[in-house]
Amino acid sequence: MNNDGHMHGMAMGPPPPSSSTTPLEEAGWPGYDNLGMYILALVVVFFIAVFVEFLSHSNYINKSNVDDHVTSGLLQTALYGLRIGLAYVVMLAVMSFNGGVFLVAIVGHSLGFMIFGSRVFKKSSSEKNLDLPPMSCSC
C-alpha cells in the first residue's frame, strides 16, 4: 500500500470457476459414489431416532425403591445428556437437506414413538414414572 491508500500490484481477480458438485456432495454424505454407504447412513440415522424415542419413554429407574437420590439423579442426568446429544445428531443429519435422511429420521421417530410412547403396546397407562421429562418443541 502506498501513501495515497491504493494497493499496487495486488489486484484481486475473479473467483475461480465453480465446480459441478452440489452442496450436498461437498457436505460429504455418502451415496454419490457408494450406494452401500448411503444405505448404511440411512439405517444409522433411523436407529438413532428410534433410540431417542426409547430414551424419552424409558422407565427403568424405579424412583420409589432408590434410596440414594444422588445416584438416581446422576443416572437420570446421564440419560438426559445421551438423549439430547443423540437428538442433536439426528437434527444435524436432517440439516444436511438430504431427502432420504429427512424421511428416515421422521419414520424412525414415529416408529419409536409408536412402540415406546403410544398406547399401541402399553398394558397400562402409567406414564407417571418416566425417567426423563418428555421432549417438547417450543416452536
UniProtKB/TrEMBL annotation:
Gene Ontology molecular function, alphabetical: copper ion transmembrane transporter activity
Sequence intervals crossing the membrane: 35-56, 77-95, 101-121
Coiled-coil intervals, chain numbering: none
Cell membrane among keywords: no
Membrane topology value: Multi-pass membrane protein
GO cellular component: membrane
Region Disordered, annotated ranges: 1-25
UniProt keyword terms in alphabetical order: Copper, Copper transport, Ion transport, Membrane, Transmembrane, Transmembrane helix, Transport
One Pfam family linked to the record: Ctr
Domain of life assignment: Eukaryota
Localization: Membrane
Family that this chain belongs to: Belongs to the copper transporter (Ctr) (TC 1.A.56) family. SLC31A subfamily.
Protein name: Copper transport protein
